[in-house]
Amino acid sequence: MMRFLLKRLGGAVVVLALVAVLVFCLTRLASGDPVALLLGDQATAADIAQARAQYGLDKPLPVQFALWVGELLQGNLGHSLFLQRPVAQALLERAEPTLFLALFAVGIAALVGVPCGMAAAVWRGSATDQAVSGVAMLGASVPSFWLGLILIQLFAVKLGWFPASGYGDPTATLGERLSHLMLPALVLGLLNSALIIRFTRASMLDILGEDYVRTARAKGLPEGTIMVKHVLRNALVPIVTVLGLTMALMIGGTVVTETVFNLPGVGNLVVRAVLRRDYPVIQGTLLMIAAIYVFINLAIDFLYTLVDPRIRLEAP
């Protein structure tokens, strides 16, 4: 198992190195000069040249990349041009809303997706299966911003059950802040539950056709025991995979939702950084999101060995 995990860790390091190169190149290919945006229209050419030299933007791109990688190896994600503070500090300030939103949304997606997928598999071909599959297809097709606006209009404007936007003032309690996250979490959770429903249904259908399931039924075991102990347990590997990937995608995919609900999260930070061409923030944030994605994939690989001992025994 250790060799299995070390092999995955080596692959993760290679992936992060490639992401670092790709992120650096894409930020530099984007049009616009961050220094000109920072100094404004009144800045002279001399002022711009002086600022570019101050931030190291006058150096050749390979030199800039080498300096950035050197800072990364020292645990420094860089220093924001516009926020005038370390990128790591800016990320920590914005991490709480995004993390809570992702966890909240994954919980909703799992609570909706897994039971619905199980029901669709158990009653395959029935009206229940068709209804669940139709809802899953609809959820995969609906834009998140449209659903967000609908939920705001219904639950915030008309019913007044939840706040329409924001994250509460700095003195707000955890309960008050979670109430601000309810609507955006519903948006992400309901939309991402569609993928979980499809994976759960497909995985359950594969297991329901196995001989040991028919044997368990022939022995007279209760249907609930068969579904939980024999079917769901053996179908957990793809379900764990899609849950982990959903969590990773939500960490990096909350940009639209945070913008609609005006949440001061990482997604909002990235949008503002892109508009300002704040290279250090863009690079540091995207690299951190990629690192979280890779870490979640490593955690999924580790969970595989716990859920299915065959993987642990067959690991090279």
How would you state the average pLDDT, rounded? 80
Annotation field: number of helices: 15
Report the uncertain regions.
Answer: none
Largest sheet, in brief, is: none
Radius of gyration, in Å, reads 24 Å
What structural class do helix, strand and pairing data support? Answer: mainly alpha
Question: How far is the N terminus from the C terminus?
Answer: 8 Å
- What is the percent of helical residues? over 70%
Which series of helices and strands comes N to C? HHHHHHHHHHHHHHH
Give the overall shape.
globular
- Counting DSSP E segments of at least 2 residues, the number of strands comes to 0
**β-sheet strand percentage:** under 5%
Give an overview in words.
- The chain is an all-alpha fold.
- It has 15 helices and no strands.
- The longest helix is centred in the N-terminal third of the chain and has 36 residues, at 87-122.
- The radius of gyration is 24 Å and the shape is globular.
- The N and C termini lie close together (8 Å).
Strands, helices and their partners?
Layout: H1 2-29, H2 34-39, H3 45-54, H4 61-73, H5 87-122, H6 127-141, H7 144-158, H8 174-208, H9 211-218, H10 223-234, H11 236-252, H12 255-260, H13 266-276, H14 279-307, H15 309-314
Helix pairs in contact: 1-14, 5-6, 5-8, 5-11, 5-14, 6-8, 7-8, 8-11, 9-10, 11-14, 13-14
Spell out the key features of this protein.
single chain, 316 residues, mainly alpha, 78% helix
Give the structure's gist in a few sentences:
This protein has 15 helices and no strands. It has 316 residues and is mainly α.
